[in-house]
Specification:
The structure is a single chain. With 210 residues, the chain is an alpha/beta fold. Helix content is 32%, strand content 22%. β10, α4 (162-174) and β11 form a beta-alpha-beta unit. It is globular. The two termini are 26 Å apart. It binds D-malate (MLT).
Length: 210
Amino acid sequence: MTDAVLSFVHRFEPATRQDVAPLLLLHGTGGDENDLIPLGDMIAPGAALLSPRGKVLEGGMPRFFRRLREGVFDEDDVRARAAELAAFIAEARAAYGLAAPIAVGFSNGANIAAALLLTQPKVLAGAILIRAMVPLAVPPAADLAGKRVLLLSGATDPIVPENNAVRLAGQLRAAGADLDHRTLPAGHGLSQGDLTLARAWLQASGRAAA
Ligand code: MLT
């Protein structure tokens, strides 16, 4: 299938199994739409994969929203970019005939996925947030009742302090999300443990092939 022309540059891999939820793959700073395709294939074999490229450039590096410096976000831009990404997801669902996706975000991609959950709570079926931090100091009141979210933090992450990840977990739980927060013996980078936990979490939700 040729990728449709939509509002984000993206890559789409159709499902080879119909009983598996589609994944929305959101890369980290400096990544692109190709980065997380292998991860998607590993954690949810046969799932449709929708992978947009962030539109914000920081020194030529794609991101999903503007930041003032590392860990300090332009929150107006976070809100606007989350709305823009929600519109893309609706377009892509119509173009490719997809159910609501489960987001799988890494670093900056995990932060926009968290912002999507908190500002556009109907858009995602669930989310795996790898090394996410608080995207909005005071999020709006969102209803995430029963929505499953896996938050994977790194015990020695130099970018996301432990109390920040705990604060994000609190925001998601307060909105009603069914949150599983795990801290791995890892830094900011992806580890084998992330893949193992993400795959098991998807299987437990009945959203990925065993
Ligand atoms: C962000 O800017 O979203 C976080 O600092 C993570 C990163 O992209 O380095």
